[in-house]
Write a structure and sequence with these properties.
Elements: H1 2-20, E1 25-27, E2 41-43, E3 48-50, E4 53-60, E5 65-72, E6 75-86, E7 92-98, E8 106-110, E9 116-123, E10 126-134, E11 140-147, E12 150-156, E13 165-166, E14 200-206, E15 213-220, E16 227-234, E17 240-244, E18 259-267, E19 270-281, E20 284-292, E21 298-305, E22 308-316, E23 322-329, E24 332-342, E25 346-353, E26 356-365, E27 370-377, E28 380-389, E29 395-401, E30 404-405, E31 407-412, E32 419-426, E33 429-438, E34 441-449, E35 452-459, E36 463-468, E37 471-478, E38 490-497, E39 500-506, E40 510-511, E41 519-524, E42 527-534, E43 543-547, E44 550-556, E45 570-571, E46 573-578, E47 581-590, E48 594-601, E49 604-614, E50 617-626, E51 629-634, E52 640-648, E53 651-658, E54 661-669, E55 680-687, E56 690-698, H2 703-708, H3 710-719, H4 726-737, H5 740-747, E57 755-761, E58 767-775, E59 781-787, E60 790-798, H6 800-822
Parallel strand pairs: 7-13, 12-14, 40-45
Antiparallel strand pairs: 1-2, 2-4, 3-4, 4-5, 5-6, 6-7, 8-9, 9-10, 10-11, 11-12, 14-15, 15-16, 16-17, 18-19, 19-20, 20-21, 21-22, 22-23, 23-24, 24-25, 25-26, 26-27, 27-28, 28-29, 29-30, 29-31, 31-32, 32-33, 33-34, 34-35, 35-36, 36-37, 37-38, 38-39, 39-41, 41-42, 42-43, 43-44, 44-46, 46-47, ...
InterPro entries: MORN_2
Protein name: Antitoxin component YwqK of the YwqJK toxin-antitoxin module
Pfam families: MORN_2 (PF07661)
Length: 823
């Protein structure tokens, strides 16, 4: 038995020794397998296996860690769990967390020495259960528990962005849809309840090779968010550097508003050294920002005031000697030599004197190659090559001699080798060839003469213009600025002769009753003459059809159902014109914030929709002439009702009903020497150079329904004319609501339309409050202001043109008196 046990130990030891001494797998700079002598990286072999997963551990050839992460054994690019890349100095450069849909629910990670670093439990792809961080000596540094992927209790390496998982499309579950990410809500800090119960978790950062904390942030997750309310920073000896309390965090965020922000050089999320410390006051950088080399020496000192770089800036070499001194003013370079990043891959070294660039400016790419070199004078490019911003914030590589552009110039967005266009200039004037590019491919060429297009194709984001001998011959429009400029992506083409449009060929829509691959419109004298002509709006489009210069039809669709199909709309609604006006079908009127659709039949409006748009809001008010009544309906509140006119004792009475209940009645009043003698509210209007009055009576007990139908009741009180038929009133209401001015009045708090004032008559049939307007024998007007049945003020013999002003003055008097009584 003993011999058998010893044999097993010998076999195991031999196998273990063999596996540990396997030659690493070597890679060159392009991650192609190579020999040790030519290698830039190497990978530990064999990789640790865990079920169908392997732990990939890569190093730079100098033994500095470069990568650690799990992947599927049959595809090392199909990552699982936490994945970390490190730079050539051994500092963390990129970190991602991937879903773990493998059969392995517990993942273990390791220090470069091979000792256990951390363990993480997973469920349904996300972190779920216990996660433990270990010191290199094997002791536990911290524990935390995830619930459904979210930190729930304990201490963690990271608390925010807990939902930010990546999904491998090459996974065995290639058809699996990425789970919906639950976005955390905005933090709104409650300053009133400091004693509320908290549910606390912490983010902890330890100093490397130490059990000493560098930073810990306390979060409250009781409200469903991760809300920081405390932060403590320590030096390597354990001394507290600062404590940030709740009021020192941004009110609507998680960043420090007042205090010092410490940034670190990290390895495996342990703090190796201080990278920078920046002072903040009221959410902006204020005071010094000090940047450090990994060896602890100062790299740069920058001074800030209210978020802007201000004053002296000193940069040092790693040995402590001064590399450069600079001065900033109002956040801009002012004096000295500056290294500035330009675009995505370019860096400029240039000198400033009193805020102006002077002397030599050198531009290099990320590899250190010089791509531009020139001399500035008086703050302007003088001689050489330069990179500058264009007027529309693109980037440009220019060639200059004697302050003027000469030669080939290059415009680009992000990368110098990916131009938007190049053009040829002689003494600041375009003369010669301009070449247009898309993803480094030529999409067009255009010759300029004396700064004007002459021959070729001018390519813009979604448009190409073709020139021949200095004249436009075609304009070609494309579906998107990101699409290739090819025939399959053309929306429409417009043809020109002698500077005027002659034809349009449109492929941007489909008329369902007249299906064509493209629709042609012919112009005469630059105006639509025959064929199809599409409108060009964002939210709503339609097509007009002409014959011999006369518009005959309009094709459209239900725009609410087709808001997402504006790129290639199908038109299935047809409207007919007569004498330039729609007589059958819908007519569309676009106002600034409203959209009106009128429906016509035989030249008579039958109904109309009044649509209101706002941020995250939509409502529709529908009006329809039906059964000798104006019926209405509101989309949001589901209000339905109608307006009718009835004859009662030879007097026309208007009735306003909602859900078959009469809420309000109205009748016309004569404005003469006698005060009205019926209980109700009298409203006065300026109409056709005279004063008209209406008496309104409300039916008690229906206040809530009146409030829910406010827009409709406003139409009833402001627009109904008792001397016109219901058809005439409907036509008038439709016309008024089609006016921007009247629509704004509907939603304002001021007097509506032509209304100028009002008077309430009480149950005793006496004027109670408001202004009474009487027409006297001189055809002038007398005004009486009432409050509590008493006359406060009178004005006599007022001319019509002055009545509105005088009533406004009386209303101010009434308001003042009521305020005094209230006090």
């Amino acid at each position: 038995m003993i011999n058998k046990f010893l044999t097993l130990i010998f076999v195991f030891t031999t196998l273990f020794s063999f596996s540990q001494n396997m030659e690493p797998l070597y890679f060159d700079a392009n991650w192609k397998t190579t020999t040790k002598e030519n290698a830039s990286f190497y990978r530990i072999q064999p990789s640790k296996k865990l079920g169908n997963l392997i732990l990939v551990e890569d190093f730079y050839i100098n033994k500095t860690p470069q990568f650690q992460g799990y992947s599927f054994q049959d595809n090392e690019d199909n990552y699982v769990g936490d994945v970390l890349w490190l730079d050539e100095n051994g500092f963390d450069s990129s970190f991602y967390q991937f879903y773990n849909f493998s059969a392995v629910s517990n993942l273990t990670y390791y220090y470069p020495s091979g000792q256990k670093l951390k363990t993480i439990q997973y469920k349904n792809g996300r972190k779920d259960g216990e996660t433990i961080l270990y010191h290199e000596d094997g002791s536990v540094l911290m524990k935390g528990k995830y619930d459904g992927g979210k930190p729930a209790s304990g201490d963690f390496e990271e608390v925010l962005n807990w939902e930010d998982y990546r999904l491998n499309k090459a996974d065995n579950a290639a058809d699996r849809e990425e789970p919906i990410r639950m976005t955390e809500g905005m933090i709104i800090r409650d300053e009133t309840d400091k004693t509320k119960s908290r549910k606390i978790i912490k983010k902890k950062i330890f100093w490397t090779a130490s059990k000493q904390l560098a930073q810990e942030i306390w979060y409250d997750i009781a409200n469903g968010n991760t809300e920081p309310f405390k932060q403590i920073n320590y030096d390597k000896s354990g001394k507290i550097l600062q404590t940030i309390n709740e009021n020192d965090f941004e009110k609507y965020g998680r960043e420090i508003s007042n205090g010092v922000v410490y940034n670190y050089y990290f390895q495996n999320k342990f703090a190796v050294a201080l990278k920078s410390k920046t002072n903040y006051k009221n959410g902006q950088k204020n005071g010094e920002e000090i940047q450090y080399f990994p060896n602890g020496k100062v790299l740069k000192i920058v001074k800030y005031s209210d978020g802007e770089e201000q004053g002296d800036q000193v940069e040092y070499n790693s040995d402590g000697s001064i590399k450069a001194k600079r001065i900033y003013k109002n956040g801009q370079p002012f004096e000295g030599n500056f290294d500035e990043r330009f675009a995505s891959d370019l860096f400029i070294n240039q000198n400033y004197n009193n805020g102006l660039i002077e002397g030599e400016a050198i531009v290099k790419d990320e590899s250190g190659n010089i791509v531009a070199k020139g001399i500035y004078k008086d703050g302007k490019p003088f001689n050489g090559t330069f990179v500058v911003k264009t007027e529309n914030e693109q980037n440009e590589l220019i060639s200059v001699s004697g302050y003027k552009k000469n030669g080939i110039q290059k415009i680009f967005n992000y990368y110098l080798d990916d131009p938007v266009r190049t053009y040829t200039v002689v003494n600041d004037i375009k003369n010669g060839e301009t070449v247009f590019y898309d993803n480094r491919e030529i999409t067009g060429k255009l010759e300029y003469k004396n700064d004007l297009p002459y021959e070729g194709t001018l390519v813009e984001a979604q448009k190409s213009t073709i020139y021949k001998k200095g004249a436009v011959t075609e304009e070609i429009y494309y579906r998107s600025e990101y699409d290739k400029k090819g025939e399959n992506n053309i929306l429409k083409t417009i043809y020109f002769e002698n500077g005027k449009r002659t034809k349009i060929v449109n492929q941007s829509f489909l008329i369902t009753s007249d299906r064509q691959d493209s629709y042609v419109g012919i112009y005469k004298n630059d105006k639509p003459y025959s064929g199809y002509f599409a409108a060009d709006f964002n939210e709503f489009n339609y097509v007009d059809y002409y014959e011999n210069g006369v518009i005959k039809y309009q094709y459209s669709n239900n725009y609410l159902e087709n808001l997402e199909k504006y790129q290639y709309p199908n038109y299935d609604i047809k409207s007919t014109y007569k004498d330039g006006k729609i007589v059958d079908g819908p007519e569309y009127i676009k106002l600034e914030r409203q959209f009106i659709t009128k429906y016509w039949k035989n030249g008579i409006p039958q109904s109309f929709d009044f649509d209101i748009f706002a941020m995250h809001y939509f409502n529709r008010y529908h009006f329809e002439l039906k059964n000798n009544a104006i019926e209405f309906e509101e989309f949001n509140k589901k209000v339905k009702g109608k307006i009718v006119l009835e004859k009662v004792n030879n007097k026309t009475i208007g009735k306003f009903s909602v859900n078959d209940k009469v809420l309000l009645t109205s009748s016309a009043l004569e404005v003469n020497e006698t005060a009205p003698s019926e209980t109700g509210s009298v409203l006065y209007y300026e109409t056709n150079n005279k004063i008209e009055a209406k008496l309104f009576k409300t039916i008690k007990g229906n206040d809530e329904q009146r409030r829910d139908s406010e827009i409709f009741s406003t139409v009833f009180t402001s627009y109904l004319d008792h001397n016109k038929s219901i058809q005439e009133n409907f036509n008038s209401i439709a016309a008024k609501i089609s006016s921007e001015k009247d629509v704004e009045l509907l939603f304002g708090n001021e007097l509506k339309g032509s209304m100028i004032g009002g008077l309430r008559i009480n149950e005793a049939k006496k004027p109670e409050i408001g202004t009474l307007i009487l027409k006297n024998k001189n055809n002038l007007y007398d005004l009486k202001l009432f409050l509590d049945e008493k006359i406060l003020e009178e004005k006599k013999n007022i001319d019509f043109k002055n009545i509105k002003t005088e009533v406004e003055n009386l209303n101010k008097t009434l308001e003042k008196k009521m305020n005094e009584d209230f006090k």
